[in-house]
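Dear colleagues,

As part of the handover before I leave the project, I'm documenting each prediction I ran so the next person doesn't have to rerun anything. This entry is a single chain, and its sequence is reproduced below.
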Amino acid sequence: MSSGSYTGSYTPQPGAAPLGRMLRAQTGLETRMLLRNGEQLLLTVIIPSVLLVLFSSVDIVSTTGPGARVDFLAPGLLALAVMSTAFTGQAIATGFERRYGVLKRLGASPLPRWALMTAKTGSVLVTEVLQVALLSGIALALGWHPHGNPVAVAALLLLGTAAFSGLGLLMAGTLRAEATLAAANLVFILLLLAGGVLVPLAKFPGAVRPVLEALPISAMSDGLRSVLQQGSGMPWADLGVLAVWAVVALAAAARWFRWE
């Protein structure tokens, strides 16, 4: 039989896997890498948990009644957890992946570049679910009494994730890895101190308060606090601030992100 008349059967057949399978596999890989990284684990889990336990037992805000202090702190630290994962952790990890050529190689794989970014976002959301569960459990053990609409809480968390993810990817895709590392940690510390997480914005001078209130971490903290502590309805003003940050940050990241 001549070689030209024979058609073989190859198993497995060469070619890319279905997009859904590739996306699930990459999301799982990104999640495992995020959770195995000791530095990222420190930022995303340990620091918010320690702050919640420590400051719930220290009189830093003027509140009264049982559980009042943790009722104030828990929403702000949920916002901090979102920022630590979606912004700080993602910016640092993506920045070094870009430096070492990992993004360039993944960008040349059958997985589309938009799907790679979707997988990174998926890993962030999985991590945030674990963070929210852990912090909520700790807060409840400390006497937290949450109120309000879960839909409003979910909307704040999702819009906050979108805003911080956009900012993190913008930073990672435009700065050198070392600059991203320094800048992301500096921003984390500044927003922790001045974003209404641990200290009410009312304690800051009136001249700088409007600027601080426009920050995404402040909008998240204020919105979560108004729902979970005060039992308010949908915090449209805070959602509007987060939506603006999300649109601008994601558009800027899509425009200026460099893969190498």
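The two ends are 51 Å apart (CA to CA). The first helix runs from residue 19 to 36.

All the best with the project,
I.
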